[in-house]
């Protein structure tokens, strides 16, 4: 099988704040921006990697989600326990310093993990955990 990861989705609670984080803080390209207000879908991705994207989407837009599920999603997002993504870089320290300089909410400074990787973590404006693993 020839399979690639094309797009993954993360929820947003404020489209403009999420757009600013992924575009201005992480330096991602904006690939599309459709809808308006709370019903806005934004696709971003790393420069030079047009085949890989993140869809920033309203979390409860699916008509199959009940009001109770919407409340649960909103609560989990507020606690930072709903969405997360793992990114990778060969320059973890450089990326971390840029994230701090751009006022990203730091969750974990670069750390050597007991399971053999070195990583750090920040939160995006919706509370999603964004982890960065050092490529070795």
TrEMBL record:
CDD domains: VOC_like. Pfam families: Glyoxalase. Residues 4-135 form the VOC domain. PROSITE patterns: VOC. InterPro entries: Glyas_Bleomycin-R_OHBP_Dase, Glyas_Fos-R_dOase_dom, VOC_core. Coiled coil: none annotated. This is VOC family protein.
């Amino acid at each position: 099988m020839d399979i690639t990861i094309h797009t993954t989705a993360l929820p947003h609670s404020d489209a403009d704040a999420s757009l600013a984080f992924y575009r201005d803080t992480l330096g991602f390209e904006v690939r599309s921006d459709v809808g308006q207000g709370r019903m806005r879908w934004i696709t971003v991705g790393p420069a030079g990697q047009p085949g890989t994207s993140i869809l920033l989407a309203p979390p409860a837009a699916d008509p199959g989600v009940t009001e109770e599920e919407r409340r649960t999603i909103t609560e989990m997002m507020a606690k930072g326990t709903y969405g997360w993504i793992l990114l990778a870089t060969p320059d973890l320290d450089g990326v971390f310093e840029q994230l701090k300089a751009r006022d990203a909410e730091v969750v974990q400074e670069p750390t050597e993990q007991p399971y053999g990787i070195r990583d750090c973590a920040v939160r995006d404006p919706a509370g999603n955990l964004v982890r960065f693993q050092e490529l070795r």
